[in-house]
């Protein structure tokens, strides 16, 4: 695995940074500015005013970073003759075809509160293996699974959700924030450079478990205690 950006020949599938995330941040900045103005002209406490200003400063910095990336048209993802390149985020990496056994699309769900969650569309590559190892650049969807989590899925009747059950693990992935992949174009590029590598729809993270399966967990554990 290399962190250097390779040279992409004509015909490679290349995705560059767009303005989608920048527009979202600008909208948030406008709302935050209106909030700050309302509080500064009202009777808010000094602590509230300071917190709002710090938050707005963070949004300004994020807007600046996204604007720079959009102007530079940074390469955030690419499928090319030597492998798959991940250029988004702080960690860049180029994964060679020899390590890849599948290119994967999946959803990552990040829960904030009981009734609030963010859903991210992700693209990544899988590699042969039965044990997930943490790697820089990846998010929670590629973290190692505990023995307790693995046993939960076995008890739920979903052993296929145990990491490495199919002999593969998530080797590298990125959330598609501010950019999107054309699945048909990606699949065509993969067929051209590595026809033996499938493009698959992977399990969402956290893996989906139904109410019926949760009941199966309780029943199986109760039977073992009996």
Keywords:
226 residues; alpha+beta; 2 domains; four-stranded antiparallel sheet; single chain; four-stranded mixed sheet; 37% helix
What would you note in describing this structure?
The protein is an alpha+beta fold. The protein folds into two domains: 19-72; 97-225, no CATH class. It is 37% helix and 24% strand. The protein has five helices and eight strands. It has helices spanning 20-40, 46-72, 147-155, 183-193, 211-225, and strands at 13-16, 75-80, 83-86, 93-96, 102-113, 116-128, 168-175, 199-201. It has a four-stranded antiparallel β-sheet. A four-stranded mixed β-sheet has the order 7-6-5-8, with no helix packed on it. A hairpin with a 2-residue loop joins strand 2 and strand 3. The longest helix is centred in the N-terminal third of the chain and has 27 residues, at 46-72. The chain starts with 12 loop residues before the first strand and ends with a helix. 23% of the residues are buried. The mean pLDDT is 83.
Unreliable segments (pLDDT under 50, ≥5 consecutive)?
none
Largest sheet, strands/sense/barrel: 4 strands, antiparallel
The overall pLDDT average reads 83
Number of domains: 2
Order of helices and strands: EHHEEEEEHEHEH
**Biggest sheet, strands in spatial order?**
1-2-3-4
> Rg from C-alpha positions?
22 Å
Instruction: Tally the helices.
Output: 5
**Approximately how much beta-strand content do the residues carry?**
15-25%
């Amino acid at each position: 695995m290399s962190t250097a950006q390779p040279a992409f020949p004509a015909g490679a599938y290349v995705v560059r940074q767009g303005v989608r995330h920048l527009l979202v941040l600008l909208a948030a900045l406008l709302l935050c500015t209106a909030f700050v103005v309302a509080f500064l002209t009202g009777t808010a406490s000094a602590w509230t005013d300071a917190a709002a200003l710090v938050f707005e400063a963070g949004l300004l910095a994020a807007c600046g970073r996204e604007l720079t990336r959009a102007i530079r048209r940074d390469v955030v993802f690419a499928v090319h003759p030597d492998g798959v390149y991940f250029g988004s985020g702080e960690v860049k990496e180029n994964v060679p075809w020899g390590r890849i056994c599948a290119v994967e699309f999946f959803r990552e769900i990040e829960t904030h509160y009981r009734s609030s969650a963010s859903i991210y569309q992700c693209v990544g590559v899988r590699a042969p293996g039965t044990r997930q190892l943490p790697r820089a650049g990846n998010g929670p969807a590629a973290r190692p699974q505990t023995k307790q989590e693995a046993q939960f899925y076995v008890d739920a009747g979903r052993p296929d959700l145990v990491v490495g059950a199919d002999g593969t693990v998530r080797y590298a992935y990125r959330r598609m924030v501010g950019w999107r992949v054309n699945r048909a174009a990606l699949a065509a590029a993969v067929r051209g450079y590595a026809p033996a590598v499938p493009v698959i729809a992977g399990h969402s993270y956290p893996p989906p478990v139904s109410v019926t399966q949760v009941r199966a967990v309780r029943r199986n554990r109760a039977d073992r205690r009996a």
